[in-house]
Amino acid sequence: MISGDDPETVGAIATGVRSGGPEQGDSPLVGYDARQLPAVADIDGKPDAESLEALAQILDEHGVYGRVRPEQKRAIVHALQSRGHVVGMTGDGVNDALALKDADLGIAMGNGAPATKAVARLVLVDGRFSTLPGVVGQGRRVMANMERVAGLFLTKTTYAALLAVAVVLLAVPYPFLPRHLTLVSSLTIGIPAFFLALPPNDTRYVPGFLRRVLTYAIPSGVVIGAGVLTAYLVSRGQGDPTVEARTVATLVLLALALWVLGLAARPWNHGRSWRFWLVIAMAACGGGAWAIPFARDFFALELLNGGQLALAAVVVVVGWVLIEIAFRLIGSRARHPAIS
What pLDDT, on a 0 to 100 scale, did the predictor assign at position 334? Predict the structure, then answer.
């Protein structure tokens, strides 16, 4: 809490709302007189690193400040940023404009000065600070759930691109009909992504979104593409008709994509999580596409013989192992708590 008012007044208000940084039990919070803060010098238009570090050390020890001048508010923002913090600044007066402008997220009150609202990135129209926790929760939900489902879409992009290039180079028919891809995409991406994107998620955002998603999606997509292509070419090499070879490829794709969905749905909490049962439901629907004659005919699938099922099973098991290894070894170095 930083304010231009008297430190005793600021400390009394902070005590009333129990803010002020470090936990101090029920004892009154004491405001720090900002006139005692070290001055932050500018070198070539940028804050001096040494003076920022001295200010940052004081900020680690105190949480309530009074008699803070506008330029000191901005220096406090810079000092916190120098420690790697993402800084949000809330204010309503003209003297808050400098700090609001330089903060990572400037938040102006709805009844604040026009200059303050002009430089802020967010304006609380109702003027209620209690609105912010809900805003933060909404932002965390969007970012964490987006990261959870982004891997599903990028995995499909990876294996689809790999298969497209492979069939052109090998001059063979494409392994799938459009209805095959509709079935697999609906059960492994479309329907589950809808549910995975909706629930609350309080996981804090961590920089590195794209890197984490790519290390999760690209290895999975490569394994799926290679597995589908192997099963399809081996089935054709054994003399199976194209429709049966495509059925083998569809079965392999569905099984491997469901495993990737299972990774995105973790943690399962030993089967007690609704995400676990979501994966089971999608797998059951996929099995129904083969078990129900009408659905099997609609999706142009065939009942496979023992040899074809054995081929699909071998490719699927090997694919599961490789995807799991990639997820644990490659993805573990950059994994976000939301998909750990």
Answer: 52
- Contact between 263 and 319 under an 8 Å Cβ cutoff? The reply is no
Q: What is the DSSP string of 101-136?
A: HHSSEEEEETTS-HHHHHH-SEEETT--GGGHHHHH
Please give the residue range of the domain that contains residue 111.
7-133
Shared domain for 85 and 222, answered yes or no, is no
Residues of the chain above pLDDT 90, percent: 38
* Domain count across the chain: 2
Label residue 105 left, alpha or beta by phi (over 0 means left) and psi (-120 to 50 means alpha). Answer: beta
Structure confidence by residue, pLDDT tens digits, 217-246: 899 999 999 999 999 999 888 887 888 999
Q: What whole-number distance in Å separates Cα of residue 136 and Cα of residue 141?
A: 9
Domain boundary among 76, 110, 133: 133
Does residue 1 fall inside a structural domain? no
Among 53, 102, 106, 55, which Cα is nearest to 77's? 102
Give the CB-side neighbour count of residue 106, counting CA atoms within 13 A.
23
pLDDT bucket at 267, cuts 50 / 70 / 90: confident
Q: pTM here?
A: 0.73
Q: How confident is the model at residue 317 (pLDDT cuts 50, 70, 90)?
A: very high
DSSP assignment string, 206-233? -S-HHHHHHHHHHHHHHHHHHHHHHHHH
Q: Where are the alpha helices (DSSP H) in the chain?
A: 7-17, 49-61, 70-82, 97-102, 114-119, 132-170, 178-185, 191-196, 209-237, 242-265, 274-291, 293-298, 306-325
pLDDT of residue 271: 59
- Same domain? For 47 and 174 the reply is no
Q: Is the pLDDT of residue 332 over 90?
A: no
